[in-house]
Write a structure and sequence with these properties.
The structure is a single chain. By secondary structure, the chain is mainly alpha-helical. The chain has one domain. Helix content is about 70%, strand content about 0%. It is built from four helices and no strands.
Length: about 100
Amino acid sequence: MAWPLVFSLLITGVVMMLGDRAGYWHPEALVGGELLLLSLASLEHISGNQVADWSLPAPGHGAGLIGWVSGNVLVSLLGQLPAVFAADLRALLSFFLLFRHTPMI
């Protein structure tokens, strides 16, 4: 699950290279990007686990520690299907924050 980190570093590098041409990035857009990464990691963990499994995941397996913790909390509190719904809502909120507060729009 290293691709979100690589993708976020790539986007950060592009914004830094563009400098003033990229415009002002609101903090809400950065929070939206972080929430999107968190919700995607949670969804990856939730899709593979119907019940919360609090034993540490094997290295290189699943959604990493962040997805494991976030997914397990949602599954243990809500169950699998409501946890997927909650993670989807979080992803929609992150898309709203990301696209509403970027200088490109």
